[in-house]
Amino acid sequence: MARPWTFAQRAGAGFIISLVVALVLAGTSVVALLSVRANHKARILELSRDVLDIKQLERTFNDKVVSGRGFALSGDTFFAQDMSVARERFIATYEALKRRLTQEPLATQLEAVSHAELEHEEAMQALIMEREDGVPRQRLEQIFDGHVADTRRRAMDSLRMLHHQTEARLSEGIHESLATDRSALGLSLLAGSLGLAGATMLAWTLTRKLRPIQQEAEASAERFQLLVEGVRDYALFLLDARGRVESWNPGAERIMGYREAEILGQPSSVFYPPDAVAAGIPDKDLVRARRDGRLHTEGWRVRKDGSRYLADVNVTVLQDARGQPRGFAKVTRDITERRRAERTQQLLAEAGGLFHQFQDPDQTVAELTRIMVPEVADACLLYLLTASGDLWPRAVAHAMPEKEAWLWDAARRFPPPPESPWGIWQVMRTGRSELKSDVSPETLARGLVGPEHLSLMEKVGVRSYLGVPLRVGRQTRGVFVLLTSAPERRLTVTDQVFVEEVAGRAALALDNARLWSEAQDAVELIGVAAHDLGNPLNTLQLLLRRLQRMELAEEQKARDGLAAALKQTQRLGQLLHNLLDLSRLSSGKLMLDVAPVDLSDLVHEVVERFAEQAAEAGCKLEFGAELGLVGRWDRLRLDRVVTNLLSNALKFGRGRPVEVRVEHAGVARARLCVRDHGVGIAPEAQRRIFERFEREPSGGQHAGFGLGLYIVRQLVEAHCGTIRVESAPSEGATFIVELPLMLLGSELREAPDIPLHS
């Protein structure tokens, strides 16, 4: 018989058994916790995969929208193929998500995305059928900007909501994983304390039983790290409790430009613009996140190179076991292009409404340049082709008023050189847009005409340039120019596509406005011509009939009658010349035949020609001139200017002196002054008299039909000159014309006659 165990033996055996049981329980607990941790890691991996698939869903839907727009508006089968492929990828991604997202509210939101996408597809198919039925392009664009745009927005809103929900679930999963890790660490320490007595057995047990689980956990952690490093569209990084960078993924390096070695340990304030740092925004964001547990915000951030981008930022507070914050997890993505695309659609709609709102071309181009600044660029210029073949600025806008004045000065004083290797004339010649996202000082200097021009443009600041032609059919009517001044702001291909769309619509709208204005002017011109030509013709017929009935003895009366008839024929000839110039101005076909002309000699000839008419009107002609005022002008057109002004002065200043002066008006300009002492012009009418078909009621029986002064203004401005009037009622009127002179033997360019002035 075996000897019975002693108490000590039993106690020792019991102790050993208890120790073994305790070690087994401790090991089992650790294994269970590690399994839970591994499950959490796997769940985080799955949640991250859901976020990436939803991002893929957004991209495929955007690809389908872009291809669908191209096919619906152009009918190109290439877009149809792209649209079909994009939708197949969308459906495949959706089916994969549907199998995984079975919990609420994600399942319901995913179904909402599917319904919204189906509505958009049906709207696109309806639009395509409209196109196949021959619906006009303008109607197609209205349908696209209406119902199709509504379905697209609903789909995008559903996708964004689904994306936010999955991101929130991922953030919660990360938080739960960290809490589980802390629990596992505590229990592991406890298990280690309980197993101190049996270190050898515990080591053997851990080596044999827990190694596979540890390997799986390490593999799961490695997969999670690979996932984080593989995310390129998101910046994922950790901050410590003081807001300094602790970790960095490749997505953060791609978005922000910093390498991991140079950003670790840096404060998060380096990602904020200087004005936000000065206002304390970085610290305020961390305080809000610490108070609420998480923070979602959107705002401008700064890359390493100083360029700005619009960021969507999620901040989650990381807490220790006692609930104290130990750091922050940040998820950042660049949404600049998405927001720019949304704003581009809004601007396109605003521009479309603008073209239908205004009939006046000048007001249209001014408003068009205004809406481009500062949304698309810092500055916007519109150049139009003149009748003489030059490019002349019609509208200029800048975000800063003082720079707008410099830009106007540079545009007017220094027309674009046709021989420039790049720039406005290159766009005119080729009819294709030109984009320079980064304009160096050397490149800028090559496109300008001299040091003074360069100095002005350096004050304005040019860092990025885009030139887009205004084309109607095969004709290029002008160039749309966009400039940026800030180093961090660059014009992109996205801006080019948008501006090309706006420029196409603008060119068509301006051409329609010009045709409408010409049609209206033609109707008015017929009435005015019939009236103005009828008066001298009737008078001439009456005089000739009277002469026919006179006896030859009445020789003096015959002379007087012939003189009156001659005056009427002169008046008729002047009216015909005015109407001819008006016709050329209206059609944009007025061409200047420029040559060196002495202004004093020309005015003296006209004064001598009017000597007899002045004597008949009882007006004493007083003429004074400075010599040597020579410019490159059209002699015939300037003769018309002086003739019309002098004719008006004799008509309205009858019986009183008329003064004509030619003098210098500065270093490079000449001034012509024609003054009468007649009835004068009321202040409220002084600006109106230079418009077409405007007449001054104070003229009484001498009032005409507003052609003379309008033509004078057009001819003066065609020579790059100005005209103004100084007058008061009953004190006469002084018309002042200023024209550019030739500088040091150089030839001035012919001034613009822009066809848009109908």
From TrEMBL:
The chain crosses the membrane at residues 12-36, 184-206. It comes from the Bacteria. It catalyses: ATP + protein L-histidine = ADP + protein N-phospho-L-histidine. It comes from Myxococcus virescens. PROSITE patterns: HIS_KIN, PAC, PAS. This is histidine kinase. GO terms for cellular component: plasma membrane. The keyword Amino-acid biosynthesis does not apply.
